[in-house]
Amino acid sequence: MKILIVDDEKNIVDILTYNLVKEGYEVEAAYDGREGLEAARTCAPDLILLDVMLPYMDGFEVCSEIRKTDRLTPIIMLTAREEERDKVYGLELGADDYITKPFSVRELLARVKTNVRRKSVLVEPAEAGDEPFRAGRLTIDALRQTVAKDGVELDLTQREFELIRFMSRQCGKVFSREELMREVWQYEYYGDVRAVDVAIRRLREKIEDDPAAPAILMTKRGAGYYLEG
Predict the structure, then answer these.
(1) How far apart are the C-alpha atoms of 73 and 66, rounded to whole Å?
(2) Residue 128 has what pLDDT?
(3) Averaged confidence pLDDT in the chain
(4) Residue 132: half-sphere exposure toward Cβ, Cα within 13 Å
């Protein structure tokens, strides 16, 4: 498995490289945004660790450009910023996760392992018996990894597809944000569940006639989210 690190702080790149190689990963490094974007397009990484504050192109721009052509490769944003809007913005651009500096190497390695494992499962061929099924106005096709609404295919990210597919298996059941984080994001230890709220909001913008008055992806106040059958 190959990890691409994009960070302009050489000491951080060196520390991460040492620990990732020790865990058995191959590592590529880039030290500015333009170099990082080129590496993401040419070296076929299995996961990208992407700093926000970069020369030439910041991490948000790099993430946005990557997601125009690659929806599958996990991106973990590395940031020294504490502002919630910056973290949410990265998730809205298509990042899978973020971790704030200074961070525990052990925690970062755990998140890398989870996301790499998730990608390896996604690229395995789906089972032949996993046929398309309907959930209300939606049709979920696990073989093609697509979702259609009223017969029109939707442009979902990989995470959004995983989320809708998971919830559609039990339409009407209310899932807490912690449950969704555990089952879809596969994080047992992760306490910040804003990633779930961002993904739900983005999904509503794509599947609802009126995202401000949802009729498909519903909220149960104080409990969580559920999908209408």
Answers:
(1) 9
(2) 46
(3) 88
(4) 15
